[in-house]
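TL;DR need structure tokens for one chain.
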Amino acid sequence: MRQPRNLLLCATAAPASVAARSRINRLIVASAIVIAASGCNSRLPVIDDTAPTAPSNVVVGDPPPPLPPVPAALVSLILSPAAVFGGSGATGRVVLSFPASTPGLTVALSSGDAAVVVPTSISVAAGATSAEFPIVTSPLSREITVSIGATSGERAVQATLALWFRTPPFIASWTDPGNGQPIDGRRVTKSALAWRASCRGSGVFVGAFEGPTSYSLDFSAPQGTALIPGTYENAQGIVRPLSPTLPTLQISAPGFSSCAAPEPSRFTVTEADLIADQLGTVRRFTATFEQGCRLAARSTTIRGEVVVVGIAPTNVTDGTRCIVPR
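>> reply
TL;DR here they are.
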């Protein structure tokens, strides 16, 4: 607000008789200053032009004008899982830096090999920060890695999808770390330096060791029964003591080991050609498995499958002979 300066209050030195006949002085309010008016010429307040003033077109209390929206940019492409058997499907997800503005953001998609088919484009809806799209693969007689690309404006990102084929022996696993992180796919093929498989009592052990990478899988039916083809629900992890009436699934794989408090786990045996000899020879064994483990506030899940044919036994000669159907 402008500030008054050099304000002069003026009054005449009139005799009392004149003052008595004078009209009652009027009060004039100017810039919150009360000036006593009299018969003399009073000076009006002088405005100090150096004082800051508000622009005449701004009303105090009005909200500031809205900021322009921040443009969304493509930041990543996530494939889940990162490896599949040829002929199986996967899912891709494009992720933006900010929610897409109206009417949405179009992202172009591409595949580096005809064995992997993706849509030509995907639209991220207005207000969303991501969108998913299907990935279709074809069966192959060899293993390949295919690059999948996503482009929007000047931004381009890539991710790779591994295609596997089933040639035993192998162990394949997909580890989901939770919290929306990418699913990690791994495989041990027949190039492994050492494979072992054996049957003891109601269970089958399969191990694969390739340098620092090793897998160890233990499948077991309820105690005293043969491990035959079928689905086994509520499989126990490494809890102690083990219940003799429940199946058991114990896993040791890169980035995952069975925990003491597993979430509902299961496995399905499709082939179990076992011999009740001294070594517990496993001629054929095929199974899929799934085990979850709650770690603090999140869950980690591992899924996979195993196929072994004619694998050398573990050379362990003690323990209960393999139980086979009569």
